[in-house]
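To fix ideas, we now present one chain and its tokenised fold:
***
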Amino acid sequence: MEKPNILVVCGRNKRRSRTAEYIFKNDSRLNIRSVGLSPKSERQIKERDVIWSDLIFVMEYNQSKRVSEAYRSLELPKIEVLQIEDEYEYLNEELIEMLTERINSVLKNLFGI
């Protein structure tokens, strides 16, 4: 299999999803990009992001629902909820640890990487 395209989504693409992209951007196992759901996001999620992705990570359950509803006309990839509240700053040590552990666990289970 080619490298999977991983889309990481949070509220405004300021802290959680950007941290995940930062951690994995040089990871040779995958391609990663981060976006936010809010119109105020630095990079707001677009249909082309969803089409590009093989797997979408969201931080909270309600974000999964928002992505599914907004793009229900598309054939959606699997959406994984990381269950990380919006209480960490960009590149926070604890946030990096949680993202690394949870994303690696899902990648191993789904793609064997």
Q: What stands out?
A: Strands lie at 5-10, 31-36, 55-58, 78-81. The chain has a mean pLDDT of 97.
